[in-house]
From TrEMBL:
InterPro entries cross-referenced by the UniProt entry: DNA-bd_dom_put_sf, MerR-type_HTH_dom, MerR_fam
Superkingdom of origin organism: Bacteria
Signal sequence, start to end: none
Entries under Pfam families matching the protein: MerR_1
Keywords from the UniProt entry: DNA-binding
Keyword DNA-binding listed: yes
Transmembrane intervals: none
Protein name (Swiss-Prot/TrEMBL): MerR family transcriptional regulator
């Protein structure tokens, strides 16, 4: 399939697909006229790449993990990399939970009718607070 069809079927822009190729996350064959042609499994590969990017992995990390997803064989290095990425995400989740808790405290203060903050209606008073 050509790049436009892959973009349509995977829901990813042509620009992103070119970037994936540039980062060696996706491969295509070139026709004699230079057009990219992708195998049928490229749709699934693009979905995996999108999932890994959404998880916060870098293209370099994804590139290191792609062979494992193709062969089904993981090395000690890929296992360590996966665990490190999971730990990184856990830390981010903890940081976000702490930020959310702090924001909840601020919301509670803002809406507490017994505090002066809840009675400020104008933007000037809010920004001065």
């Amino acid at each position: 399939m050509r790049i436009g069809e892959l973009a349509e079927r995977s829901g990813v822009s042509v620009r992103s697909l070119r970037y994936y190729e540039e980062q060696e996350l996706l491969q295509s064959e070139r026709s004699s006229s230079g057009q990219r042609h992708y195998a049928e499994h490229a749709v699934e590969r693009v979905g995996l790449i999108q999932l890994l990017f959404a998880a916060g992995l870098s293209s370099k990390t994804i590139q290191a993990l792609i062979p494992c997803t193709i062969t089904g064989v993981s090395t000690d290095e890929t296992k360590a990399l996966l665990l490190a990425e999971r730990d990184r995400i856990d830390r981010q989740m903890a940081d976000l939970a702490a930020a959310r808790a702090r924001l909840d405290e601020i919301v509670d203060i803002a809406f507490d009718p017994t505090l002066p903050c809840a009675h400020q209606d104008s933007p000037e008073k809010v920004s001065a607070a």
